[in-house]
Design a protein that fits this description.
Blueprint lengths: L5 H14 L6 H11 L5 H9 L1 H11 L1 H24 L3 H10 L1 H30 L3 H21 L13 H11 L9 H11 L4 H26 L6 H29 L5 H17 L2
């Protein structure tokens, strides 16, 4: 199977939905599946990014109430902050606002977290797709990331942030820096941001949910750019197949999001680290 079409779209949509929000690298799995099915080249690289849109829409649907509340409260808090700044501007006013206006500063932090990977990705994405979209890169990254997860879980300090809206700008920045690592196929956007969150003092559930929210601007920007940039590669039938893949990834990702949030409240991430180590070792042996 080396032609892009409905059957391959369903397979890739299923893989994307299952792996996008787990710390195992959806892009890495899509690359491995693509090589196994002889689906490689420019159109494959475009599909492997574009199909992520289905999963990100699943986050929007799953977190819709919280997103609406965040935007609504942030709008009100922004108006209050503006009045505070007009009355008495300065650094102390911003500090008081950061404590009092949690929803507004959560969104500001999310914006801050978005920019490091967006900038690095914009500058390096062509080089990454040309040289790093390979099974050996994925395998190596899976193994390295697996050891990182084990190390963080073994030596992690007690969490300081136990509520999502209490994630501050400083913590958000470090999560954003950690997300840059996920540009390497196999490292995992979810894994990098969750680990970054744990190191920044977030508890496991908050780090996981923050990873979901950070995925919104990051993946919407990446997939929108890739879909527009790939117009010359896709025919109308190709877009229909991509649409089918998006639907499949949306449905599967919705179920995975709910299950994963429940899982991380009771368990560590070690099982995913062991999976990464095992899969990476197998891939290295196969492609040696």
């Amino acid at each position: 199977m080396n032609q892009w079409g409905p059957e391959l779209a369903v397979i890739l949509g299923l893989v994307e939905g299952l792996t996008e929000f787990l710390p195992v690298s959806s892009t890495g799995h899509l690359i491995l599946i693509g090589h196994a099915l002889s689906f490689t080249g420019a159109i494959a690289a475009s599909v492997e990014v574009s199909i992520q849109l289905g999963s990100i829409l699943a986050v929007v649907a799953y977190e819709r109430r919280k997103i609406i509340q965040l935007l609504s409260q942030a709008g009100k808090e922004q108006a209050i902050l503006w009045e505070m700044l007009k009355a008495r501007g300065g650094w102390s006013t911003l500090q008081r606002s950061a404590e009092a206006h949690r929803h507004l500063w959560f969104l500001i932090g999310l914006t801050v977290a978005f920019f490091p990977a967006a900038l690095v990705g914009f500058l390096t994405h062509r080089w990454i797709e040309s040289f790093l979209f390979t099974p050996k890169t994925v395998a190596t990254s899976l193994i390295v990331g697996g050891f990182v997860i084990l190390a963080v879980e073994a030596r992690r300090s007690p969490a300081r942030v136990t509520q999502l809206e209490h994630v501050g700008v400083r913590s958000a920045f470090w999560v954003g820096v950690a997300q840059c690592v996920s540009l390497i196929p196999g490292m995992s956007r979810s894994g990098s941001t969750i680990v970054g969150g744990l190191l920044a003092g977030l508890d496991r559930k908050v780090a996981t949910e923050y990873s979901f929210f950070l995925a919104l601007p990051t993946m919407i920007a990446a997939t929108a750019y890739k879909i527009v940039a790939s117009q010359s590669l896709f025919s109308n039938q190709d877009y229909l197949a991509l649409g089918l893949g998006l639907v499949v990834s949306f449905a599967v990702a919705w179920a995975v999001i709910a299950a994963f949030l429940t899982f991380v409240q009771r368990h560590t991430l070690r099982v995913f680290a062991y999976y990464r180590l095992a899969l990476g070792a197998v891939v290295l042996m196969v492609f040696h």
